């Protein structure tokens, strides 16, 4: 019999090294190597083959039809729903709402008499029942078990025969028959591989919950990404109710869709019209405020940008950018000074994207620069104006992608004027385009426009 051996495995890339080092020799990350005992044989190899070759024309196309969960924003990201036999990894920080989302999705399926199983290795049956009660999820077709032993979980799959199964979380699962140590990257990977084999063999759509590490990656991310079909990440700012769901990898569809939710007392509520929500509390006529039509995935979103400029004290001026890229803001402040003659070198500058959105696309450059200019000069931007455009080092404005969709969304929400780069095409009905070649022109026209 082959002897097991000790290796040092990287928690980031899964690469193995024969001895410990401060830096992973495979991916170059620091302090990611952990000791583990490597199994003499790969456990996934023990699963009997369940596939049968067939002429391509005889393959049943309906077998891969997604089944809607009934949670629209989730179905949007999944490209329609959950594909039978597929494995989806749902990643997100603790407390972001992963368990809540999945409980709601299972309840929605169970409501339509679809047999579903929720396996929790994190919470007791009582805890989950209480939550289910609050969410209106006490459905007879929703089965629950608190379990961490993978062999038992697989036995429960036989007993309940669910159409959809949730395992919350993959990091809490253990398989005592595996030689990898509990909680190690290797064990998480092996458990995921085994569950994947079971899901494929039985046609169960399986969702694994995955914790993210402090720097935002799923624990052992690349390892798990290879094992599963779909990776979905659930994000949001801790102090905001807004939650964003996006596909990072998707074998059955596009990764461009974005799902939006609001965390409420009654669980997660889909946001079919987020722009309206983002602008609901906007105060008209205040300097430093401007609206930018941004695109998240395929979705146009109107987001308010705000800037505040104050006299700086002694020492170097403060720069604060929430939901925005710091480097991009410094860049825009430099261009404002050199190319538009608006200097904030003696001032503190605070800027933020309202509503907990992260706004990092260059299409927001012009709006951010105009917000700072408006705050610095204390001249408000007209309420019905939006700004779109990328700013170059020479102070020139450049066209951005999907301008038509951005403008259409602005028109839908009642904006009548858009400041855009000179080369922009035609506007949709209801929007007047103000074309500007440079940032200086845009500031001049935007802050003095009637
Ligand atoms: P949870 O789903 O447990 O997060 P995760 O599984 O990602 O760790 O959600 C936890 C947070 O959500 C918790 O702080 C309370 C909040 N919450 C609500 O605001 N409303 C609700 O209806 C529920 C169930 C949770
Ligand atoms: Mg949870």
UniProtKB/TrEMBL annotation:
Residues 348-450 are annotated as: Lon-protease-like. One of its GO terms (biological process) is recombinational repair. SUPFAM superfamilies: P-loop containing nucleoside triphosphate hydrolases, Ribosomal protein S5 domain 2-like. ATP binds at residues 92-99. Residues 63-212 form the RecA family profile domain. HAMAP family: RadA_bact. It comes from the Bacteria. Pfam families: AAA_25 (PF13481), Zn_ribbon_LapB (PF18073). GO terms for molecular function: ATP binding; ATP-dependent DNA damage sensor activity; damaged DNA binding; hydrolase activity; zinc ion binding. Belongs to the RecA family. RadA subfamily. It comes from Actinomarinicola tropica. NCBIfam families: sms. The middle region has homology to RecA with ATPase motifs including the RadA KNRFG motif, while the C-terminus is homologous to Lon protease. DNA-dependent ATPase involved in processing of recombination intermediates, plays a role in repairing DNA breaks. Stimulates the branch migration of RecA-mediated strand transfer reactions, allowing the 3' invading strand to extend heteroduplex DNA faster. Binds ssDNA in the presence of ADP but not other nucleotides, has ATPase activity that is stimulated by ssDNA and various branched DNA structures, but inhibited by SSB. Does not have RecA's homology-searching function. Plays a role in repairing double-strand DNA breaks, probably involving stabilizing or processing branched DNA or blocked replication forks. InterPro entries: AAA+_ATPase (IPR003593), DNA_repair_RadA (IPR004504), P-loop_NTPase (IPR027417), RecA_ATP-bd (IPR020588), Ribosomal_Su5_D2-typ_SF (IPR020568), Ribsml_uS5_D2-typ_fold_subgr (IPR014721), Rubredoxin_2 (IPR041166). The lineage of its organism: Bacteria, Bacillati, Actinomycetota, Acidimicrobiia, Acidimicrobiales. Keywords: ATP-binding, DNA damage, DNA repair, DNA-binding, Hydrolase, Metal-binding, Nucleotide-binding, Stress response, Zinc, Zinc-finger. GO terms for cellular component: cytosol. This is DNA repair protein RadA.
């Amino acid at each position: 019999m082959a002897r097991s051996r000790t290796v040092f495995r990287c928690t980031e890339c899964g690469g193995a090294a024969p001895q410990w080092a401060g830096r992973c020799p495979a991916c170059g990350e620091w302090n990611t190597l952990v000791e583990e005992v490597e199994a003499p044989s790969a456990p996934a190899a023990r699963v009997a083959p369940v596939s049968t070759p067939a002429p391509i024309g005889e393959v049943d196309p309906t077998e891969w039809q997604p089944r809607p969960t009934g949670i629209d924003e989730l179905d949007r990201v999944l490209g329609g729903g959950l594909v039978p036999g597929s494995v989806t990894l749902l990643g997100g920080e603790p407390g972001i709402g992963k368990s809540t989302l999945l409980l709601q999705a299972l309840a929605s399926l169970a409501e339509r008499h679809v047999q579903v199983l929720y396996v929790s290795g994190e919470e007791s049956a009582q805890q989950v029942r209480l939550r289910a009660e609050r969410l209106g999820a006490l459905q007879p077709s929703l089965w629950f078990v608190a379990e961490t032993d993978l062999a038992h979980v697989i036995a429960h799959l036989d007993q309940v025969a669910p159409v959809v199964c949730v395992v919350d979380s993959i990091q809490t699962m253990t398989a005592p028959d595996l030689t990898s140590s509990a909680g190690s990257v290797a064990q998480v990977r092996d458990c995921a591989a085994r569950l994947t084999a079971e899901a494929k063999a039985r046609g169960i759509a399986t969702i694994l919950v995955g914790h993210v590490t402090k720097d935002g990656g799923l624990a052992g991310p690349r390892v798990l990404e290879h094992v599963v079909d779909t990776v979905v990440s659930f994000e949001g700012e801790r102090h905001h109710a807004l939650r964003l769901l996006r596909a990072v990898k998707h074998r059955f569809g596009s990764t461009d869709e974005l799902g939006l939710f609001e965390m409420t007392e009654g669980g997660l509520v889909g946001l079919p019209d987020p722009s309206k929500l983002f602008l609901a509390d906007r105060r008209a006529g205040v300097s430093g405020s401007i609206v930018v039509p941004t695109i998240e995935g395929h979705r146009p979103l109107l987001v308010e940008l705000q800037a505040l400029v104050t006299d700086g004290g002694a020492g170097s001026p403060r720069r604060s950018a929430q939901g925005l890229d710091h480097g991009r803001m410094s860049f825009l402040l430099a261009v404002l000074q050199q190319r538009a003659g608006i200097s904030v070198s003696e001032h503190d500058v605070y800027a933020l994207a309202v509503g907990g959105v992260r706004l990092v696309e260059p299409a927001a450059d012009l709006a951010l620069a105009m917000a700072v200019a408006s705050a610095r000069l204390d001249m408000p931007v007209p309420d019905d104006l939006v700004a779109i455009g990328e700013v170059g080092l020479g102070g020139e404005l450049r066209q951005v992608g999907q301008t038509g969709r951005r403008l259409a969304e602005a028109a839908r929400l009642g904006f009548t004027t858009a400041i855009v780069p000179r080369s922009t095409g035609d506007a949709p009905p209801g929007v007047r385009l103000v074309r500007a070649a440079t940032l200086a022109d845009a500031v001049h026209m935007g802050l003095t426009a009637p």
